[in-house]
Design goal:
- The structure is a homodimer.
- Chain A is of the alpha+beta class and about 325 residues long.
- Chain A folds into two domains: about 5-170, Ribosomal Protein S5, domain 2 (2-Layer Sandwich), CATH 3.30.230; about 175-315, 2-Layer Sandwich (Alpha-Beta Plaits).
- Chain A has helices at about 70-85, 110-120, 130-140, 190-200, 205-225, 230-245, 260-270, 295-305; strands spanning about 5-15, 20-25, 30, 35-50, 60, 65, 90-95, 150-155, 165-170, 175-180, 280, 285-290, 310-315, 320-325.
- In chain A, strands 1, 4, 5, 6, 7, 8, 9 and 14 form an eight-stranded mixed β-sheet that branches.
- The radius of gyration of chain A is 19 Å and the shape is globular.
- Chains A and B meet through helix 5, helix 6 and helix 7 of A and helix 5, helix 6 and helix 7 of B.
Chain lengths: ~325, ~325
């Protein structure tokens, strides 16, 4: 019997137009389409080995064996791959993040993208990019955007086959930078899965969802034209819009911390001073500052002067998910 | 000729359901109805004297003669009163705030309520509470809520005659406290007049306006039943909803500061520990903590331990606008 083993790498991504709330929970169909950039500095490398000799699935993440819910989510994903391949075998999954874990950065996008590619290849499947993106989506919605390289659009779709991400520009299209300022290393109190489920309880949710298509079209055009002034204002508005939904959910979710607000103001001040930088947030307090490569050093320098900033991590546009071996 | 002079006092008020955005700018008709409590600690006392001997209007606020726009807004209000009374006379206006000025607390509500009563009485008019509330509304929208005592509802209305505040409960109905934590003494960069005009540019504005009636009905019922748990959650949601509109206006308005967010989190923590306190915000960074009289001392105590809190001002439910002399 051939060796059922493969290793794959995938980047995390930062959404310029956000995904928050689901059209279909079972299928992980989002309420709206979204737009993102892969982050070259935030990479997960995952090895999957299937063997009929393994009784059970073992998951080792950054050297530590996972138990409970975290493992269960990965086992459920392995089950999807086994079902597709008609495979009956236990798996050993070894996964490593290139970025510090426990700094409040979501690793589920890079993690499930790498897992989807490594597991499907180990199981002998040769999936297309579209099929991989759909598979990754079942693991974690935003993981589907980490399959293509560079800049991606995840079309919401109305059924599973329609809901996947495709590249709208390769990494080399634009030397953008995501300068992440870590203002808290605490684990978030409300996870994304729970948050997505709460989104429709906000009285602002429908208005947000209805408004996304307009922003996405503008952001995509600005991205293709490399018009940062336009792109930047749209991504800030979209991030605030998502947090407005979070904070008006029942119960509300307050992800921002004092440092988050301080940096929102600093970004406005810096722009007024001529430094072209814009912010966005994921479902957490850490702020992502988007600028061009030429301004990266100055943004980093200013961030290091701010007491609330614990750490700075800089990424450029990253590649898509890729097989490393065999 | 009789002496055309009168002195009146009026309280500021804190809105439990907010007013943000106008249905009619000319008439100062709000986009939605609102609900508030007068604040007994924040009072303006205003004396107006009309005399045919005065060539021009003189406005002295807290001992300083006002010039420019601030004076012009008051002169325009005096003109309304003169037109109603058929009076041709200059005015001397002397106004004093009982609370520290320049701590980021809006004085326009108490100021225009006191001015409306003092000026109309000095001009020989005996206006009903409804007429006074309508008059005050032209000076500053929220001033109309400072005319009745205690707890008031401002009905938005579709014409000027319908848009005024009436008392829904007297001050003695409920020993609520508004414990204001001052986190910034800076003047706000975007004033309310400008902010109201920007409100409709937010993609969340219509959804907010449409959702207010439901919250107002619930908040009013909770207020009448003295159900702080229900009232509190609604006022928090409404305050966040208003700030969501502000932050998604074009351009966005960010009133919150790091201390504002810190206290949002503290309020959640304190509630989890059993201290029943809820927050709201006006168009600014200072947070208003709403609790019952029995918990006031503990809320104050905890606030004084927080570095970002520069000053604490406590109010109970205040009286309506009243004539002090003659």
């Amino acid at each position: 019997m051939s060796i059922l083993k493969a290793t794959a790498a995938a980047c995390a991504n930062i959404a310029f137009i956000k995904y928050w709330g689901q059209r279909d929970v079972e299928l992980n169909l989002p309420a709206n389409s979204s737009l993102s950039m892969n982050l070259d500095r935030l990479t997960t490398v995952t090895t999957v080995e299937f063997s009929p000799d393994y009784d059970d699935d073992v998951v080792i993440l950054d050297g530590r064996e996972e138990r409970g819910e975290a493992r269960q989510r990965i086992v459920a994903h392995l089950d999807r791959v086994r079902a597709m391949a008609g495979l009956r075998a236990g798996a050993r999954v070894i996964s490593k993040n290139s970025f510090p874990t426990g700094v409040g950065l979501a690793s589920s996008a890079s993690g499930f993208a790498a897992l989807s590619l490594a597991a499907s290849r180990a199981a002998g499947l040769e999936l297309s990019q579209r099929e991989l993106s759909i598979l990754a989506r079942f693991g974690s919605g935003s993981a589907c955007r980490s399959i293509p390289g560079g800049f991606s659009e995840w079309t919401a779709g109305t059924c599973s086959e329609e809901s996947f991400a495709r590249q709208i520009a390769p990494p080399e299209h634009w030397e953008l930078r995501d300068v992440i300022a870590i203002v808290s290393r605490a684990h978030k109190r409300v996870g994304s899965t729970e948050g997505h489920a709460l989104a429709p309880t906000s009285h602002l949710y429908q208005a947000r969802v209805a408004s996304v298509a307009g922003r996405l079209a503008q952001a995509k055009a600005a991205l293709l034209e490399k018009d940062l002034a336009t792109l930047g204002r749209i991504i800030e508005e979209d991030a605030i819009s998502m947090h407005a939904v979070m904070m008006t959910s029942r119960p509300p979710i307050y992800y921002w911390l004092p440092g988050s607000i301080k940096l929102i103001h600093e970004v406005q001040n810096w722009r007024a001073e001529g430094l072209e930088v814009y912010f966005t947030f994921d479902a957490g307090p850490n702020i992502h500052l988007i600028c061009q490569a030429a301004d990266q050093a100055e943004v980093e320098r200013r961030l290091r002067d701010i007491e609330e900033v614990l750490e700075v991590i800089v990424s450029g546009p990253g590649p898509g998910a890729r097989v490393i071996e065999p």
